[in-house]
Amino acid sequence: MADVADFRLDLTRPGFYLRPDYFEVLADLRAQAPVLRTLDGSWAVSRYDDIRSISRDPERFVSGRGVLINDPLRSDGSGGLNTFSILHLDPPVHALYRQIVNRQFTPKAVSRLEGMIRRTVDEVLAAVPADEPVDAVEYLASEIPIAVIAEMFGVGDADRAVFRRWSDAIIASPDQADAAASAPEVGQMAEFLIAHIDSAATEGNDLLEILKGAELDGRPLNSIEIMGFCLTLLVAGNETTRTLLSGGMEELARCPDQRRDLALDLSQVPTAIEELLRWVTPIQAFGRTAVVDVEVGGQEVPAGDFLVMLYASGNRDEAAFGPTAGRFDVHRPVTPTHVAFGFGEHLCLGASLARLEARVFFEALLSRYPTYEVVGEPEYVPSTVVRGASRLPVVLAP
After folding, report:
1. Whole-angstrom distance, CA of residue 63 vs CA of residue 128
2. The dihedral of CA 132, 133, 139, 141: what is its sign?
3. Per-residue model confidence (pLDDT) at position 181
4. In-domain check, residue 398
5. pLDDT digits (tens, 9 = 90+) for 257-274
6. Is the terminal CB of the chain with fewer CB neighbours within 10 Å at N or C?
């Protein structure tokens, strides 16, 4: 166990999540410094109970001053396109916005998409050569969430690759030293979404019709506000699900006995998805700003300070998940609830959709290719938001 004096963490620099001793560091933080002042002046919060407490207390811990580690709202107050994201809204406005589309993302509502998702998964798997190495990120994990989001927005197939490029640019933009580097991609995405929202092509699209017909404080939403909804759904839906699918493939390949159990009994897949979410934790961290002096985990935190909730640490907290918290187990009970989708009022809006996409994907993958292999070292995206593979070489039918 490392000495707490050695914890000189700078969470603002991409790469912390890729340390070879990353999960050991998180365990040491939970044991010795569960609320630690980092080099940039933020607080790293590593215990499950503290993360949940912050998440369900929006009166004292606000999102409107930034939720990303390198959020523009924290540095210069501009926020860029984040200004229009539901992620940055606080009560009571947040609840008003969320109520507009909540019913579209309940488990019952998204279940209507299962047929479309299953067809998409089948098409994607059929298009990939089974007996030669392929990049599972490029040809499997990336294709499915983008196709689903494009279908929900009523966007044609030709724009899927562009959607992914735009989504990647927005995720990367807060971590770039030169903010202008991603500005063209981000601007193109905003222009495309606004033009699409205003076009007649959206007629008959349930999600966009709801947004265009919605009112906020007695007035209709404008195109910029609707674009903010779409932007959040597109980026969050793409990045979270893509990382879950690729990370799930990687972990199941490392645990062939557990993978075999699932392939022999696909009814276990929904429970396994919860364990994959806990283990992979696609979004590694979000933050909140304390608006009053407050105590967190025995540490006095002054008003105005930024707290980074390390979701991956919370998801491996022995106090919550028991002595086997550091072990992957597809048979693990689904309670307590992991924090891979956040917690409280900002619980991920698309959680049910991500679960459905993952279930359909792994059912199809394991029924066709129960012994697929990872045939090279994965490569990962350096980020302060996600810990996901940029490349995962696999052979589906070794």
Report:
1. 41
2. positive
3. 61
4. no
5. 999 999 999 999 999 999
6. N
47-97 tens-digit pLDDT: 999 999 999 999 999 999 999 999 888 866 555 555 567 888 899 988 888
Where residue 200 falls among pLDDT bands split at 50, 70, 90? low
For every residue of 218-286, DSSP letters joined together read TEEPPHHHHHHHHHHHHHHHHHHHHHHHHHHHHHHHH-HHHHHHHHH-GGGHHHHHHHHHHHH-SB-EE
Range of the domain at 169: 4-393
Alpha carbon of residue 142 to chain centroid: 13
CB atoms within 10 A of CB 24: 13
- What would the DSSP string read from start to end of 251-264? HHHH-HHHHHHHHH
What distances in angstroms separate CA 316 from CA 87, 274, 282, one per listed residue? Answer: 25, 13, 14
Task: Find the CATH number of the domain harbouring 324.
Answer: 1.10.630.10
347 burial (CB, 10 Å; 0-12 / 13-18 / 19+) is middle
What is the CA angle 132-264-107, rounded to 5?
A: 95
- Report yes or no on 30 lying in a domain: yes
- Residue 282's nearest CA partner among 315, 252, 254, 319 is 315
What average pLDDT does range 191-196 have in this prediction? 81
Banded model confidence at residue 210, pLDDT cuts 50, 70, 90: confident
SS3 state at 152 = helix
- Note whether residue 296 is domain-resident: yes
| Alpha carbon separation from 82 to 26, 64, 71 (Å, rounded) | 29, 10, 8
Number of folded domains in the chain? 1
pTM of the model: 0.93
